[in-house]
Design brief:
The structure is a single chain. The chain is α/β, with parallel strands linked by helices and 394 residues long. It has seven helices and 18 strands. The protein has two domains: 182 residues, 3-Layer(bba) Sandwich (FAD/NAD(P)-binding domain); 145 residues, D-Amino Acid Oxidase, Chain A, domain 2 (2-Layer Sandwich), CATH 3.30.9. The strands form three sheets. Strands 1, 2, 8, 9, 10, 11, 17 and 18 form an eight-stranded mixed sheet that branches. Strands 5-6-4-13-14-15-12-16 form an eight-stranded mixed sheet, sandwiched between helices. The protein has a two-stranded antiparallel sheet with strand order 3-7. It is globular, with a radius of gyration of 21 Å.
């Protein structure tokens, strides 16, 4: 059994853990990450939509502020990361078009548009003809849509690789193993014990393990983050050169009340997603899930049937009770959280890194992050519940 000590030990090497480690190391903290496969996790499945506006849901106006703050950081964040590492992260300022395929879907999208405008957001209502003028591959039945020029995209796989490289350049130490148990001494978190029995000591531990964050042994039961896995299946297609450009921007759609999105990459990949399934830890790709995605995508864009299917995947989003992340110190001294980002992990990567670095250096959450303290779920506080589906615009 060996023992190594750092100022900050981050449990979890997905994009949230990596950006936390990178920013902490930049602030002069001796930082380590424990994860068997840094750069893995939900980002390997995610489509990478930076959709602060088109992802707006009823009951999530506070989260909207954090999402917008992170979206504003993205250009500078990408420029810094690219200059430092030389990695192209696939950042495209292409905007998003959200469309409806029947009268009911159009009514729901109209409601969402009104809600966006009441929230001070910029989106433009387009007729079906105007939507098809922007994206000629759309089906003739498209009834209308919303053009949102600020909802862009990034390639999460490339982002993950760049963050690993940035961490390495900043001196972050990687322990490529599982954290088995949190070490607690005199009511303070002091590190973790790995699966091999190694002791990794730290002044502070940041639990950033995505959907696995609630399963780390040794965390007091009443302080385990209330994170659940939400399964999402995606399909990846390849657009041959003769069809390019198939789409010029991200397209999201309501198809008979269901949601589907198509995210075109500059390399010819087209990501189609995603299901949302409360099935625990199951990551099976199912025929039904793939069928539903391709069926709805075909109704939206009939030409999709000519494309080669190159990959199917299922990942687990880290859901929280109010669909918002948990950022900052817990009631256990030395233990901090950066988890529960649900469907916004990639979008919230820049602001999460800044928030966590600030709290690790100063001990205080910045103002924009205070609504997302993990302590909001403590037993003696009122816990906001996630809005029911009937309360949300489709």
């Amino acid at each position: 059994m060996s023992s190594r000590t750092s100022d900050v030990l981050v449990v979890g090497g997905g994009v949230i853990g990596l950006v936390t480690a990178w920013r902490a190391a930049q602030r002069g903290l001796v930082t380590a990450v424990v994860d068997p496969e840094p750069g893995g996790g939900a980002a390997q499945v995610a489509a990478g939509m930076l959709a602060a506006v088109t992802e707006l849901h009823y009951g999530e106006q506070t989260l909207l502020g954090l999402n917008l703050a992170s979206a504003r950081r993205y250009p500078d964040f990408v420029a810094e990361l690219t200059e430092l590492t030389g990695h192209d992260v696939g950042y495209r300022r292409c905007g998003t078009l959200a469309v409806a395929l029947d009268a009911d879907d159009r009514a729901h999208l109209r409601e969402l548009h009104a809600f966006q405008l009441r929230s001070g957001l910029e989106s433009e209502w387009l007729s079906g003809r105007e939507c098809r003028r922007l994206e000629p591959m759309l089906a003739p039945g498209v009834r209308g849509g919303l053009r949102v020029d600020g909802d862009d995209q990034i390639d999460p796989r490339r982002l993950s690789a760049a963050l690993v490289a940035a961490c390495e350049r900043a001196g972050v130490v990687f322990h490529r193993t599982w954290a088995e148990r949190l070490s607690v001494v005199r009511e303070r978190a002091v590190g973790v014990v790995t699966r091999e029995g190694d002791v990794l000591g730290a002044d502070r531990v940041v639990l950033a393990a995505g959907s696995l964050s609630g399963r780390l042994a040794g965390v007091p039961e009443d302080l385990l983050p209330p994170v659940r896995p939400v399964k999402g299946q995606v399909v990846r297609l390849t657009v041959p050169g003769q069809y390019a450009p198939f789409l010029s921007r991200t397209v999201r759609a309501l198809v008979r009340g269901g949601h589907v999105y198509l995210v075109p990459r500059e390399n010819g990949e087209l990501v189609v997603g995603a299901t949302s399934e409360e099935l625990g830890w199951d990551t099976t790709v199912t025929a039904g899930g793939v069928y539903e995605l391709l069926r709805d995508a075909h109704e939206l864009m009939p030409g999709i049937t000519e494309l080669a299917m190159t990959e199917t995947q299922a990942g687990l989003r880290p859901g929280s009770p109010d669909n918002a992340p948990m950022l900052g110190p817990t009631a256990l001294d030395g233990l901090l959280l950066a988890t529960g980002h649900f469907r916004n992990g990639v979008l919230l990567t820049p602001v999460t890194g800044d928030v966590m670095a600030h709290v690790l250096v100063t001990g205080e959450l910045p103002d924009l992050a205070r609504p997302f303290t993990p302590k909001r779920f403590d037993a003696d506080l009122a816990v906001p519940s996630a809005p029911a589906p009937s309360e949300r615009p489709a």
